[in-house]
């Protein structure tokens, strides 16, 4: 079977490797993060919206489209759903389970950026781990706050109230504990991404009794079949051969 796998998270790489022995897989990345080492072709870059993705599916004679993008890559998931409708290619999706609070957690939730900023007003030294948006809001940093931001961006705006750490997971618990202590962080700002690669920051916040402000997940379109584990999707492929 010819498969286009829209990736971007660790489980997507696991899926690609698990499918390779029996199928022809094209692994697609938006262009951010590490390029995985795979025996299959790896495509970097966008498609030009849902119409461009539909054209690619036709040109490559794709028989199955897999959405294994980041839970917050809502536009890509919408494009995948629309392209599947335009072409009739079945869409399967891996939906990574969200994190759940544990005993000792102090989690607050925000539906969008304005809500998140409102929730963070009570703190002085927040640590943002939600991507690039904080860098677009540097001029809005209150005079009483100092922001620590961890993301992949290399072009960093200059501000005496901002430090940017260019890093990507996985992160170890001890390193996260040391970082929170060193920067005197009093609030962690995160997306509810799920997975293991960046979960250590939540455990560190729990251990140090630091509140966590979580940006809620966007609504994603339905797929023909949805899976919450890699093994379940691979098993479904084996059953369909």
Give a quick precis of the structure.
By secondary structure, the chain is an alpha/beta fold. 30% of the residues lie in helices and 22% in strands.
Keywords:
22% strand; 2 domains; six-stranded parallel β-sheet; alpha/beta; Rossmann fold; single chain
Provide the residue-averaged pLDDT.
93
Care to count the β-strands? 12
Strand order of the largest sheet: 3-2-1-4-5-12
Shape: elongated
Helix-and-strand structural type: alpha/beta
Number of domains: 2
CATH architecture of the largest domain: 3-Layer(aba) Sandwich
Number of discrete helical segments: 7
Low-confidence spans: pLDDT under 50, at least 5 residues? none
**C-alpha Rg, in Å?**
19 Å
Structure description:
With about 240 residues, the protein is of the alpha/beta class. It has 2 domains: about 1-95 and about 220-240, 3-Layer(aba) Sandwich (Rossmann fold); about 105-215, NAD(P)-binding Rossmann-like Domain (Rossmann fold), CATH 3.40.50. Helix content is about 30%, strand content about 20%. The protein has helices spanning about 10-20, 50-60, 75-85, 115-120, 175-180, 200-205, 230-240; strands spanning about 1-5, 25-30, 40-45, 65, 90-95, 105-110, 125-130, 145-150, 160-165, 185-190, 210-215, 225. The strands form 2 sheets. The chain has a 6-stranded parallel beta sheet with strand order 3-2-1-4-5-12, sandwiched between helices. Strands 6-11-10-7-8-9 form a 6-stranded parallel beta sheet, with helices on both faces. α3 links the parallel β4 (about 65) and β5. α1 packs parallel to α7 and α2 crosses α3 (about 75-85). It is elongated, with a radius of gyration of 19 Å. It starts with a strand and ends with a helix. The relative contact order is 0.17. The mean pLDDT is about 95.
């Amino acid at each position: 079977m010819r498969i286009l796998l829209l990736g971007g998270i660790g489980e997507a790489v696991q899926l690609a490797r698990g499918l390779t022995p029996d199928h022809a897989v094209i692994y697609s990345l938006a262009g951010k993060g590490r390029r995985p080492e795979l025996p299959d072709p790896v495509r970097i870059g966008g498609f030009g919206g849902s119409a461009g993705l539909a054209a690619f599916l036709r040109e490559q004679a794709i028989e199955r489209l897999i959405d294994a993008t980041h839970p917050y890559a809502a536009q890509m998931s919408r494009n995948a759903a629309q392209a599947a409708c335009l072409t009739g290619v079945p869409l399967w999706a891996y939906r990574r389970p969200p994190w759940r609070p544990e005993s000792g957690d102090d989690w607050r939730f925000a539906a969008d950026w304005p809500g998140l900023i409102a929730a963070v007003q009570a703190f002085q030294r927040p640590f943002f781990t939600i991507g690039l948006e904080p860098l677009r809001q540097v001029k809005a940093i209150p005079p009483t706050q100092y922001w620590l931001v961890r993301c992949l961006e290399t072009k960093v705006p200059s501000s005496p109230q901002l430090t940017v750490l260019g890093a990507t997971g996985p992160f170890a618990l001890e390193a996260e504990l040391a970082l929170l202590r060193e920067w005197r962080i009093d609030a962690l700002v995160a997306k509810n991404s799920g997975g293991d690669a960046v979960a250590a920051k939540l455990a560190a916040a729990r251990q140090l009794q630091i509140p966590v402000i979580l940006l809620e997940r966007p609504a994603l379109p339905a797929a023909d079949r949805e899976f919450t584990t890699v093994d379940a999707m691979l098993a479904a492929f084996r059953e369909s051969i």
